[in-house]
Amino acid sequence: MENVRPNVLIVDDDVQALETMSLYLAGISEVFTATGGRQAIEVVQQQHMDVILLDVDMPGMNGFKTLEQFRKLKECINVPVVLVTGKRDKDTVMNSVVLGVDGYLAKPVDKETLRQKVMEVFEEKSSRENRKTILAIDDDMSYLKIIDSYLHDDYNVIIINSAKLALNYLIKNTPDLILLDYQMPLYNGANVMNMIQRNLEGSQIPVIILSGVLDREALQECYACKPAACLVKPVSKEVLVETIESSLNG
Fold first, then answer.
1. What is the CATH number of domain 133-249?
2. How far apart are CA 37 and CA 43, in angstroms?
3. In the chain, % of residues over pLDDT 90
4. pTM metric for this prediction
């Protein structure tokens, strides 16, 4: 990773903190700054980011709300986010875990710790880009986190909790395999498969349907779209990985 300088966005309403972290990272990265969530959203829509450092306690749109908005943008669906905050309480840490952030740093952050975390997250992101990409689509974010925990060591996992956002992602991106929830609001799994096959260059992407219920009617509807497999939730890690490998190699 020598000579590779990641683009890093620092989001913090504290101007002094912005200046300090910018100075710390100036030698190893291209630094961009934003003093709030709305400005940060504008920045990521205009400039590719490799890592985002996000303050939690900001007026108006706090870090958690900003992160939720990031994950709704196609430009920012999979950009690593490290929370930087003066808060050390249990709720803040738990929210960080639930939202699936890539790191957590408590203020004040020293120079070496900050630089080490940024490069660690960036290098992990770069290594993932050489792996097979799995797109997991499910309106249940907690279940997506389970899927991610099963697969993130071996695959580049993209998790999206909306069929519409997933279709937007597929316009510009081609994953190696899609995990698709059958029972979603507005569009069920069969509807989404039909749209992918009809309107996108994704008709050859293997799709594995996941569903809490696979009755006869659902199975008929799913298999009409020719998925690679159908699995009943909850699915074990072993069965999921075996099915993915079989679908990718089949």
1. 3.40.50.2300
2. 10
3. 44
4. 0.59
